[in-house]
Design goal:
Blueprint lengths: L7 H29 L4 H37 L3 H28 L1 H6 L5 H16 L1 H16 L4 H23 L7
Amino acid sequence: MQQMDTSPGALTRLVWPIFVENILRTLMGNVIIMLLGRLSDSVVASVGTANQLFNMINLIYSMFAAAAGIVLNQQLGAGRNKDASDVMVIATGISLVFSAVCSAILFFFAPVLLRLIVEDPTLVEDGAAYLRIIGGLSSLHALNYLAIAICRSYGFTRYPMYVSLAMNLIHLGGAFVVVLRPFETPF
């Protein structure tokens, strides 16, 4: 049986990429809110309201990915690589189906869901437009959380950090173009 490295250095090598990834995710949300603040307070309020719903869905995706990661780690720890592979396939299928349903609900019922939180028609209208975009694509978030859990289960903590960094740069670039409009865009 292979001896596992339990030194503080080994733990640090696993933890720091996870820490950086989470800081990047949090930082990006704050930067986007600051960019939107240049448009209006109403837009910030609309996006903030829509993000409350989106964050609840993301929490569900994150919990599912964590649970899948735990089961995957159990199988890997027991040396059952075939079962670990089955866990990944089953978790991916469940995640795809569940997140597709959630995406459809967020896309088609965005105004209805937002009216449960806020009554201002302007906030509902602007928030619904935003929620349709991010909610309609929430399946990508579910798969991202699951891929991160799988990578971490195999000890690859740096890859999710690199992907998070790349996603943040793309997100920031897109937000910069759409919000600040350094040149004319069709949206």
